[in-house]
Amino acid sequence: MVVGVKLELITSGYKPERVIARLYYYTLTNILLGKNAWDVYPFILLNLFLSMLAAIQAPVIMMSQNRQDTKDRLPGELDFEVNGRAESETESAGRENGRLRELAEGQEFSIAREKQYK
Fold this sequence. Notes:
The protein is an all-alpha fold. It has 2 domains: 1-41; 59-118. 86% of the residues lie in helices and 0% in strands. The chain is built from 3 helices and no strands. The chain has helices at 2-11, 16-33, 44-117. The chain is rod-shaped. Residues 1-7 have low confidence and may be disordered.
């Protein structure tokens, strides 16, 4: 229970709305302070923070995508196996249909021949 509460407290600060609001506040404060700002217009310090954040988040995002790719690949492989079995069953049904058609045509020919000689 305590671990869940601590985890919730840690992750609750990373909501996109809050991050966007803090970035807006940071840039607005530095613009309003003018020449007295700690990070003037090109916002080099802000750029550094965002670059470090991206460097920290990138490996986590890549690992998450790889994990999801592995999860998505399994149903695709299963579908491929099912499609292969369905294709072989369809081919065997087609062969059986052709064999039965040949038998039926042979019987029709023999019936017609018998009628012809009667």
